[in-house]
Structures are given as structure tokens and as C-alpha cells.
Amino acid sequence: MHYFANPLRFKKLSAFILPLAALVAAASLAAGLYGGLYLAPGDYLQGDAFRIIYVHVPAAWLSLFAYAAMAAFSFMFLVWKHPLADILARVSSPIGAGFTAIALLTGMLWGKPMWGTAWVWDARLTSVLILFFLYIGHIVLVRSFDDPMKGSFAGAVLALLGAINLPIIKFSVNWWNTLHQPASISRLDNPAIHSSMAWPLLLMALGYMAVYVLCLLMAARGEIAARKKQITNAERLARV
Amino acid sequence: MMENFALSFDHSAPYIWASFAIALLILTAMVVGCYCYMKSAEGKLRDEA
After folding, report:
1. Residue A222 touches partner B, C-beta closer than 8 Å
2. Considering the entire predicted model, what is its pTM?
3. Hey, are the CB atoms on A218 and B5 less than 8 Å from each other?
4. What ipTM did this prediction achieve?
5. Hey, is the C-beta of A221 within 8 angstroms of any chain B C-beta?
6. Per residue in A86-116, pLDDT tens?
7. Could you report the per-residue pLDDT of A31-88, keeping only the tens digit for each?
8. SS3 assignment for A40-105
9. Closest approach of chain A CAs to the CA of B23, in angstroms?
């Protein structure tokens, strides 16, 4: 990461990755949507409503992944004071909040016809709602200080403390009696989903991951340019 | 082959369409938002240089 801390190097690398990520995102999402809506058979118990998993499950995975990445960037910032890690952590929270919002909203739309209710205060749903509030808290906190470094420090501490929520979300369905079903696809040795239903899900997950990379790199480039402009303005003011 | 097509979904069709619409809307908003932020910030920096 020290190598890519140079803004020019980061810009060059992102210029190479961005079109690639856009292509992967568009192709995977198009193929995943076609497979999920058209090719995958209906579930014998849930009927067609099971198709909602194609937009819900990848969003839930990415909401956890984005937080884990944000916590890792925050750790790098706190330990090595790495400016790029600070920028990546700062721009991660709105992206993660977007994925969490998709997971929550599509989960509610699946719950209504399947459970008869859009929301229950069970361990999985509540812990994901807390994750959403952690993202919102991070977005607000890093922008709440006159000194951006203080905001970054406070945000990094919040991101690391909030990481305790990740295993709680993952294992909530095993630790407590929840209405939400336990993991099905992550049991690679014996997945509880047939391959005809699994491949569109994996394609959608790849597409969501590509969207994450796309958003992260574009937002980071924007943040680097905004900081450069601030420094230029400060230097100009100092000369006057 | 047409029996699987999305238009012939069962009673849960409105929930399915709403889910896909919301997900794609938020994903699009995220990508467009980040793109606009990047272009705007880099454009302002270029204008000042």
C-alpha cells in the first residue's frame, strides 16, 4: 500500500482497473439477472419469491465485506498513519451503507410474502440494522471535526470497535433462535442450494464485488483530488 | 421455456420486481454518485492548476 500512496501511481492503477471493473460489473450483473429471473427454476416451497435472494444475498455479503475492509483500512491508518488508508476508510462507509440498505430493503420485501411480516427483531435483522447505523455514524463522525485528522482518527476508532458486530451478524443465526434461516451457500462442502440456482447467485456476487471496487476507486480518486485542492488553496492563502 | 419467464411469476411478483428495482436503483445511484464526485473533484483541481 505504501507503493500506491503516491497519488500518480494510484491514479494510473485505478485508470487501468476502472474500465475492467465496469465491464465485469455490467457483464456479471446482466448474466446474473438473466439467470436469476429467467433460467433458474422456482423453489418448490417459496415459489418465485426465492428469486429475491439474487439481489439480497450478494448485498448482505458485500455489506460485511465493505465493513471488514473499512476496519482493515482504519487499522492501517491508526498504525502507520497511511494517508491512502485514511482516504479508503473514509470513502468506504457510504458504499457499505448502500449495500446494507439494499440488503435490509430487499430482505423486508422477501419477508413480507414469506414470513407474513417485513420485520422482526431477531438477532440477524437487528445486528444488520446496527451495521447500517455504524456506517451512518462513520459517515457523520469523520466529517464532524474542523481538523480532518481528528475526524479520521475518531472514524478509525469507531470502525475498529464496530468490527465486533461482524462475527455477531455471521453467527447470529447459529447462536440464537432466529426467524432468519442459517447459512446455505457458505457451506461449500454441502451447500443447501442446487447448482441450477447457485450459479446466478455467484455471478451476481461477482457483479456486486465489481461495483464495490468501481465505487471505492472512483470515490478515492475524488477524495484525493479534493484534498489536493484544499492543500493548494491553503498554500495560496499562506502566500497572500 | 416461457413458463419460467418473469412475467408469469406467482403472487409474489410485486415483491420480486420491487426488490430488483430497488437494488438496481441503489447500485446505479452509488456508481453515478461516485463517478460524478470523481469527475467534479478532478475537474475543479484541473481548473485551478
Report:
1. yes
2. 0.91
3. no
4. 0.89
5. yes
6. 999 999 999 999 999 999 999 999 999 888 8
7. 999 998 888 877 777 778 889 999 999 999 999 999 999 999 999 999 998 889 999 9
8. CCCECCCEHHHHHHHHHHHHHHHHHHHHHHHHHHHHHHHHHCCHHHHHHHHHHHHHHHHHHHHHHH
9. 5
